[in-house]
Design goal:
Length: 272
């Protein structure tokens, strides 16, 4: 067999990171992917940054046992809390979702940028800092949207009146701010893109951090002699929650069937 068959490993607090896997599979269809969803401890977005940092280190230490060529932190909250400590502690190259999302937004427009994300991600200031790094004078407006994760997990769709009502409440300030680009800074928000776009109007471009991270992952691998051969890649999932539930609900996030899910206990994520 040709090529480097080591997997691209991805972790998230639960199912949401499958929106990133979907983009990775589109960008790099030959790569084998190993995914860990820490569903037993979801949500990360309401927890302290210290707790999320510890969980992220544990998630990464489990995945490193699979000898990855690249680690993708699909969770925005984990990226916000732990990207520096992960990069300092791992030999594997690491891609986060925040810097690529911020860069995609400032590359798209010279105008004002909005960000929506979990409470912990917004409180960390990570998106504001990343935008300032690429465009120091840029006007930014942020909003945390804590109810959106449970609403998406419950299977509510874009045209559900509850979704529109909750979004209407969260997006009020951003509607007045009129951003040229709005970063969807949470794994779950791409599933509500239709409703968000409807409320923000055609002048606001939605920027998916998931897509931006997948593009960055592809660019990083292209610079290294580690591509897989041309055969179709595989997806192997681990969850700290219920594998049947993961396979069933995860399809909506992945946009396809999930066959290969195994349980892993949170005690097995201990740092070795
Ligand atoms: N994966 C999280 C994120 O992207 C959303 C779900 C959670 O709060 O754990 O921030």
């Amino acid at each position: 067999m040709n090529g480097d068959q080591r997997p691209v490993c991805v972790f998230d607090s639960g199912l949401g990171g499958l929106t990133v896997v979907r983009e990775l599979m589109g960008a790099m269809p030959s790569e084998n992917i190993v995914y860990l969803g820490d569903s037993a401890r979801v949500p990360y977005g309401t927890k302290s940054l210290e707790t999320v940092r510890r969980f992220a280190l544990e998630d990464a230490s489990f995945l490193v046992r699979h000898n990855p060529k690249l680690l993708v932190v699909a969770c925005n909250t984990a990226s916000a809390a732990a990207i520096d400590i992960l990069r300092d502690n791992l030999d594997t190259p690491v891609v986060d979702v925040i810097r690529p999302g911020a860069k995609a937004a400032v590359d798209f427009t010279d105008g004002p940028v909005g960000v929506i994300a979990t409470e912990a991600t917004i409180a960390s200031g990570a998106y504001v800092q990343a935008i300032a790094q690429y465009a120091p004078e840029r006007e930014v407006c942020t909003a945390s949207c804590p109810l959106l994760v449970p609403i998406v997990e419950e299977g509510r769709s874009d045209d559900d009146p509850i979704v529109l009502h909750v979004l209407g409440d969260y997006l009020g300030e951003l509607q007045r701010f009129r951003p040229a680009a709005l970063i969807l800074g949470c794994t779950h928000y791409p599933l509500l893109a239709g409703a968000i776009s409807k409320l923000m109007g055609p002048e606001t471009e939605l920027i998916s951090s998931a897509k931006a991270a997948a593009d960055q992952a592809r660019a990083m691998l292209a610079d290294l002699p580690v591509q897989a051969d041309g055969a179709a890649g595989t997806l192997k999932c681990f969850t700290t929650g219920n594998p049947q539930r993961f396979a069933q609900l995860g399809q909506r996030f992945l946009g396809g069937k999930i066959d290969n899910v195994a349980f892993v206990g949170t005690d097995e994520l201990e740092i070795r």
